[in-house]
Amino acid sequence: MKKLFIDPITRLEGHGRILLILDDDGKLKDAYLQIPELKGFELFCRGRRGEEMPQITERICGVCPEAHHLASAKCLDACYGAEVPGPARIQRELFYNVYIFSDHLLHLIFLGGPDLLLGADAEKAKRNILGVLEAYPEFGKKVVRVRAGAQKILEMIGGKAIHPVFALPGGVAKPLSEEDRAAVEEKAKAMVELAQDLVELFHEKILPDPSFQGFLLAEELNFPTHYMGLVDEEMAPNFYDGALRIVSAEGKEIYHGSAADALELLDEHVETWTYVKFPYLKEFGWMGLEPGPNSGIYRVGPLARLNVAERMATPMAQEEYERYLDFFEGKPVHSTFAYHWARLVELVQAAEAVMALSREPALTGEDVRGKLGEPGEGVGVIEAARGTLFHHYVLDTDGIVTYANMIVATTHNAAGIGLSVKAMAKHLAEDGVWDETLLNRVEMAFRAYDPCLACATHFLPGEMPLSVEIYGSDGKLKKRIMR
Amino acid sequence: MKMNGGRNVRPGGGKDMEGDMSSPTSLTETRHSSPVPRRDAKPKLAVYWTGSCGGCDVSFLEVGEAIVEVLSRVEIVFWPALVDAKRSDLEALPPGSIDVALINGVIRTEENAEMAKLLRAKSKYIVAYGACAHLGGVPSLADRWGKEEIFREVFGKGFRPGPPPGANGEAALPDLLDAAVPLEDVVRVDYVVPGCPPPAPLISRFFGALLGGEMPEPPHVFANVKALCEECQRVRHDDRRIERIVRPHEVLPDPETCLLEQGLICMGPVTRGGCNALCPAAGMPCTGCLGPTPEAGDPGTAMLSALASLVRFEDEGEEYFPKEDGVLEALADPLGTFYMYSFGRFRRKR
C-alpha cells in the first residue's frame, strides 16, 4: 500500500470512510478506517534506474516527499556500499531537519492547531486555518512567514520544494554556495525564535485548558502498544539517521541495533477491506486489531520517538522533554493526544539542529559525491515526520531495480489509528449519541497521528472531509453521518 | 484496455465529447469571453483529486499569499478539501453550473472515473491539473502490468477487495481499473496546467487568465510551446557532440554547461518550458514533467532522434556508439527515462 490519503469521496458519497459495525444489542462491535487508494509502486519501480528512485518514490506522497526522497537515497547508498562525504551528508541532514520543522509546524498550528488553539468544541465554521489566524493574528502571520522561509531553504537545497531532485546514491547533486548557506543561517534564527514562542504559547494557552488535559489523560485514548524509532549514539531521537530502537508496551527494550536489520523483525498483515497493510512485530504475531503488551502492534512518530529515546539532542528541546515526562510521570507515554506535545518537543530540536548545521564549516564543501561500489541490495531507514520509513531495494549489476518495498509511516500506524478510532467510538457509543459530536471526536482521535490523509485534506480552510457509516448486526447500512 | 472509446479525446482533439458544450477545435489562442465570466462576476470553481499524491493540492500554496486573493475572487462550488460538499450536492447541480473544474491525479479506480464524468457533466470547462491528470503521471508506469499483477505483488495471491467482516457490499473497498490512465481517457479535457506538481509561474498564469476574464480558447496547455532549453541558463555549444551517455550519479557535472552536452539524458529539448528550468539549475537533468512540446509529440521518439543527432558514432572517429542500438542500451531504462510522467498517455500510441 503506497497511497496514504483517504480519497475524500467514496463511491457511495462519503469522504474519508470510517465503518462502524454494531452487534445485536446495537452496541459497537468493530470500527474500521478504510483506505481506498493503491498505486502499486512495488511493482512499477522494477526496471527503473536505481538513481531515479528518489524522484519516483517521492510521488508516493506529495505532502512529505522529502522523507521518501532521502530514505530512497540512503537505501541507494546501501545498495552501492557508498560512504557519503561530509558536505553531502550535512546538506541532506540540514534539508531534512528543515522539513521536520516545517511539517510539524504546519500540523501544530494549522491542522491539529484548531483542536488545540480553539478548543475541541469551537464553532464549526472557525475550526480551520482562518479561525486560527483570526484568534491569533500576529502570531499566525509570523508562522506563515517563518514557514515560507523554511520552504525556501527546501527549494534552495532540494531544487524544488515539492518533489525535490537533489539526492543521488552516495551524495547530492552539487555543492552549496556560501551565499545560500548564509541565507539558511538567517532563516534558522527565525525558526529557533518561533520554536521558543510556540513552547510559551503551549504552556500559557493550550496545556492549562481543562478539555485538552482531559484528552491527554483520557482513559480510552491511553492504550499500550510497542514503539519504534531511530536514536543517535547518545540515545536522542535522530530524524535522518541512527540505530533503530524498539521498546515494549511496558517500556522494556526489545531491539536496539542496525535499522536495516530491523526489517527482519517485521511482517505485514493483509485485510481485503482496505488497501493499507498492517505491519506487526513477528515476535508477538498478528492477533487482530488489539492493543496490549502481547499484541504485535507498535506505533511510530513523535510519541514513539520520545518513548524510545532517553534524551533530546539539543538544549531547548531537552528542557521541554523533561516537562513532558514530568507531566506524564515517566515513560512510556501511551496517550494518543500526547502526539501533539511530542511533536512540539521535536519541532524545537529540529529548529536548533538547523541552526547548528547551518554553521557547520563543512556544509559548503565541494566533496559531495562518495565513491560507489558494485550495485546490490540495500535498506534505507529514516524518520519521516509521521514515523519510521523503510525503503528496501535490490539492484542488478547495471544498477537497475529488480525488487522494491517501502513501509511508510502511516502504514506502521494504521493499526494504532484504527485502535484509537475504535476506542473513541466505543467511548462515545456508551452515550448512544451518533451525531456530529461523534464525527468531531473520532476525527480528533486520528488527527493526533497527523496521518497524511488528514493533513492533505486539511491544509487550507475547511473541514476534514469525513463520513462515518454505521452497519447493523445484519450487515446493512443503518446510518451515515457526514459533512 | 479501452475505457469509453475516448482514446482520441485529448487536448488538441476536442472531438468525440460528452457533455453539453460547443466544440471548439482551434489551436489558436484567440481570446473569447463566454462562458467563463469576466472580472465582474466570480467564476464558479470546483477542485477535485482522483488518484493523487497530494502534491498538486499543496502546490496551490506555492504561489504564496496570492492564493488568498485567488480564493477571495472565485466562488468555490465543490472542493472536498476546503468546503463542506457531498457528492449528492454535486449530482443535484444543473449541467454547466460549474464554470471551471480542476482535477488532479490519475484515474486508477472505478470511483475516480465516475467522479471525473460527474464533474464533466456539471462543468463548462475541465482542467487537467498536474502530470497525472495530464499524462498519467508516475503512477501510470504501472500500466506495463494489469491490476491482478499489482494485487499479487502487493498483497499476495488471491487478493480481492471486499467489505469488512459484518458489513455488506456497500462498505466494500473500491476496485482498481486495469490501468492507470490520464483524465482525457475518460472525459474531454479543455485546459491543462502541467507539471509534477505544476510550478508556481504556471499556476499564476492560469489564475491570471481565469480572473482576468482572458481564458484562451480551448484546448490550451498553460505552459510554453517552446522547449525547456530556451529558458535554461546553461550554456550550449553549436558543435556539441556526446561521446558517451552517463548517469547522474556517475559524474559531477560542470555547473555552467548544458547537461546533455555532458552526456546526461536531459529531456529539455523535447519538454515544454515554463518552470524556469528548475531541475537543470539544481544540477539535475530535466525528467519531462511538463510534458512534450507540440513539436516533439511522442517524447520517446523525439528524444531518440534528438540523441541520434548528438551522439558521436564510430565512423566519426571517437568510437563509442557502434550503432544506434547502442544508444538505447546505454540508456538502461528507456521507458522510465522517456515516459516517466507520460506512459499512460503514450503507451498505445507507440
Taking the sheet with the most strands of chain A, its summary is: 4 strands, mixed
List how many beta strands of chain B DSSP finds.
Answer: 8
Number of domains of chain B: 2
What is Rg of chain B?
22 Å
Highest-level CATH class of the largest domain in chain B: Alpha Beta
As residue ranges, the low-confidence spans of chain B are 1-35
Describe this structure in words.
Chain A is an alpha+beta fold. In chain A, 41% of the residues lie in helices and 17% in strands. Chain A is built from 16 helices and 15 strands. Chain A has a four-stranded mixed beta sheet with strand order 2-1-14-15, with helices on one face. In chain A, β11 (377-384) and β12 (387-395) form a beta hairpin. In chain A, α4 (86-111) runs antiparallel to α12. Mean pLDDT of chain A is 86; it is low at 1-15 and 453-464. Residues 1-35 of chain B have low confidence and may be disordered. Chain B has twelve helices and eight strands. Chain B has two domains: 44-221, NADH:ubiquinone oxidoreductase-like, 20kDa subunit (Rossmann fold, 3-Layer(aba) Sandwich); 224-350, no CATH class. In chain B, α7 (200-211) links the parallel β7 and β8 (220-221). In chain B, the strands form two sheets. A six-stranded parallel beta sheet of chain B has the order 2-1-3-5-7-8, sandwiched between helices. A two-stranded antiparallel ribbon of chain B has the order 4-6. The chains are: A alpha+beta (483), B alpha/beta (350). Chains A and B meet through β2, α1 and α7 of A and α1, α4, α6, α8 and α11 of B.
Secondary structure layout:
The complex is a heterodimer of chains A (483) and B (350).
Chain A: E1 16-22, E2 28-34, H1 41-44, H2 53-57, H3 65-79, H4 86-111, H5 113-117, H6 129-135, H7 137-158, E3 167-168, E4 171-172, H8 178-206, H9 210-217, E5 226-231, E6 243-247, E7 253-257, E8 266-269, E9 278-281, E10 298-299, H10 302-308, H11 315-328, H12 338-358, E11 377-384, E12 387-395, E13 401-407, H13 409-412, H14 414-429, H15 436-447, H16 452-456, E14 466-471, E15 477-482
Parallel strand pairs in A: 1-14, 5-10
Antiparallel strand pairs in A: 1-2, 3-4, 5-6, 6-7, 8-9, 11-12, 12-13, 14-15
Helix pairs in contact in A: 4-7, 4-12, 6-7, 7-8, 8-12, 10-12, 11-12, 14-15
Chain B: E1 44-49, H1 55-59, H2 66-72, E2 75-78, H3 87-92, E3 98-104, E4 107-109, H4 110-122, E5 123-129, H5 131-135, H6 147-155, E6 176-181, E7 191-193, H7 200-211, E8 220-221, H8 278-281, H9 299-308, H10 324-331, H11 334-338, H12 343-346
Parallel strand pairs in B: 1-2, 1-3, 3-5, 5-7, 7-8
Antiparallel strand pairs in B: 4-6
